[in-house]
Amino acid sequence: MSPVLAPFAAPFAEPAGSPIRELFPYLSRPGMISLAGGYPSPSLFDAEGLALAAQQAMAQGQSALQYGATEGLAELREALALQARERGMQAAAADVLVTTGSQQAFDLLVRVLVEPGDTVLVEVPAYPATLQALRLAQARILPIPMDEHGLQTDALAQLLAALPAQQRPKLLYTVPNFSNPRGTLLAAERREALVGLALEYGFRVVEDDPYGELRFDAPDGAPQAMPATVRATGERLAAAGSNPVVYLSSLSKTVAPALRVGWMLADAPLLRRCTVAKQTADLCTSPLTQSIAACYLHSGRYPATVQRARREYQRRMQALVQGLSEGEDSGIRCSRPAGGMFVWAELDRRIDPQKLFDAAVAQGVIYVPGKAFYPAAPDLHTLRMSFAAPEVPQIAQAVERLRTAAQQAAG
Ligand code: PMP
Question: Where do the Aminotransferase class I/classII large domain residues begin and end (predicted)?
Answer without folding.
Answer: 51-402
